[in-house]
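Researcher: Good morning. I'm working through a list of sequences from a screen, and I'd like to move beyond sequence-only analysis. For each chain I'm collecting a predicted structure so we can compare shapes side by side. This is the next one on the list. No need for commentary yet; just the structure.
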Amino acid sequence: DSLYWYRYLPDYRTVYVHYRACVEMKNRPFRDFATELLDFIDTQAVDKVALDLRYNGGGNSAIAQPLIRGLIERDEFAQEGRLFVIIGRRTFSSAMLNSLDLRDNTAALFVGEETGGKPNHFGEVGSFTLKGCGATVTYSKKHFVRYKTDEPSLPPDIPVEVSFSDYMYCTDPI
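Model: Good morning. Structure tokens for this chain:
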């Protein structure tokens, strides 16, 4: 039920970080989570970090900044093969912006499927209610432009397709 958590995989000296939504949890502020995670990385035998954004449909991209800044500030993540970002068809919006920050500022390798969202996209959703019928209308207030070209998605460096068999037998090829 947690929107963000991590687990240490000692046999691989890897920390797996699951970040499912760019939303603050009431019982665990993301800033506290990021501080704990970065302290763990600094004090334990950690060679690699795998940040899983493949199920993250967005929210507020600023929430993840304490973690992203912390990863950028650590020299080891300027080396290829130390930071892996897992992306997929459900990576959208603010998770896309977080992915781009990591792509532009670290040596992260991106693993998985192409993102569902475009690097340049509309976001910052607003809403209003129609008085006559009570229906709620949502709309985008901002166009995020990160690159000169309008690419359809962010492709992975290491593509990993999920097959129907993987889905049926609950296996994760990543």
